């Protein structure tokens, strides 16, 4: 038995050593052909059109302007489009122009990352899948600097040890957190803790063990990053508690198009329109918005009720998101509010601005939202925002009753929405003015400035 184990260990070591040598030789040959260093962004869903993608493109532009001699690569799984179409969509959705060359490396195995493939042990299997996708990416292009902008931390050892790359990351949301452990421990039902588990002591304890082991592994791979950016105080607290490398961890708020939204001067009309902006993902909890809106309609008089409208703007990444939208429309039918709720799916940037212009109130309902770019954009535009009393909105973005409002349950949301609709113009303008001023902390320019302060000492060595 010992001989077999030794033989397997030696074979495994030799296989890994061979792969490492092959990758280093290919990297050396690439450098011989083109001496410019390369930085590769790992963002398999780069064409999705959400806040995470805005971080990717603004980071890329900031580095291109400061380090024009680098080659810039984006690993993408969007094989149904080409690079030019992706760049065009960036301009259409975000009003961001990418003027310098970007090379796209298209990945065939992105489908392995879909959560729908793994009804059980989703975190584990998605993380293992990210290793497979990372290996594919590494074999297609071995960069000097690897920058994960989606949160696939299990890709770090692949690029660090096999590829010999410097590893950077931007963490939007910890894959696992103490809040998730607490939810399981307290048997709280949520989108990632189903009722049949929360109702069973045995299954709850098994899931707790699974989460704790996963958290240990998550911390191990996370510590392999050379530079760690986190997007909010909430995210930073969780990453520090699990990864435990404060010297390498930097708070970097995501870029928000504050100046453009500020120029809209929205909210100064007599509109009773409530605007929601977020991707159609389960954790965004659009169902809570519909419930709160129904309760609001029950509170207001008939004249105001007829003017109230909820406009839900968001992007669909896949068939799962499209199915989710259909379920929300069915909920509208059950609540008898369909005539006053509009769904705007995959709108371009200029359409988004027109929708925001007509709004009065912004609403966001995700619990433990890591940051919430749309909240800042709506605040800058002049809408009075009501967000969930947790995560980034609570710790970083909104000062309750001063720059916006925070709520938790549907009744609380409805009560605050009603209060806002009944406010005088002086009261509303006071909140709008304070929110616009405060939103400057999250501008595009501030993001670029803080990013470069951290990365210049590293990139200047190449």
Automatic annotation (TrEMBL):
Domain of life where this protein originates: Eukaryota
| Domain ALG11 mannosyltransferase N-terminal: start-end pairs | 38-243
Question: Which pathway, metabolic or otherwise, does it act in?
Answer: Protein modification; protein glycosylation
According to its UniProt entry, the protein's GO biological process terms are: protein N-linked glycosylation
InterPro entries the UniProt entry points to: ALG11, ALG11_N, Glyco_trans_1
Catalysed reactions, semicolon-separated: an alpha-D-Man-(1->3)-[alpha-D-Man-(1->6)]-beta-D-Man-(1->4)-beta-D-GlcNAc-(1->4)-alpha-D-GlcNAc-diphospho-di-trans,poly-cis-dolichol + 2 GDP-alpha-D-mannose = an alpha-D-Man-(1->2)-alpha-D-Man-(1->2)-alpha-D-Man-(1->3)-[alpha-D-Man-(1->6)]-beta-D-Man-(1->4)-beta-D-GlcNAc-(1->4)-alpha-D-GlcNAc-diphospho-di-trans,poly-cis-dolichol + 2 GDP + 2 H(+)
Name the record gives this protein? GDP-Man:Man(3)GlcNAc(2)-PP-Dol alpha-1,2-mannosyltransferase
What subcellular locations does the record give? Endoplasmic reticulum membrane
Which organism's genome codes for this protein?
Dinothrombium tinctorium
Q: Which residues form a coiled coil?
A: none
Which class of enzymes does this protein belong to? transferase
Gene3D superfamilies for this protein: Glycogen Phosphorylase B (3.40.50.2000)
What's the EC number here?
A: 2.4.1.131
Q: Which GO terms describe its molecular function?
A: GDP-Man:Man(3)GlcNAc(2)-PP-Dol alpha-1,2-mannosyltransferase activity
Mind telling me which Pfam families this protein's record contains?
A: ALG11_N, Glycos_transf_1
Topology in the membrane? Single-pass membrane protein
Keywords, in A-Z order: Endoplasmic reticulum, Glycosyltransferase, Membrane, Transferase, Transmembrane, Transmembrane helix
What's this protein's family per the entry? Belongs to the glycosyltransferase group 1 family. Glycosyltransferase 4 subfamily.
Q: Where are the transmembrane segments?
A: 6-25, 118-139, 209-230
One GO CC annotation: endoplasmic reticulum membrane
Function of the protein: GDP-Man:Man(3)GlcNAc(2)-PP-Dol alpha-1,2-mannosyltransferase that operates in the biosynthetic pathway of dolichol-linked oligosaccharides, the glycan precursors employed in protein asparagine (N)-glycosylation. The assembly of dolichol-linked oligosaccharides begins on the cytosolic side of the endoplasmic reticulum membrane and finishes in its lumen. The sequential addition of sugars to dolichol pyrophosphate produces dolichol-linked oligosaccharides containing fourteen sugars, including two GlcNAcs, nine mannoses and three glucoses.
Q: Which residues form the Glycosyl transferase family domain?
A: 269-436
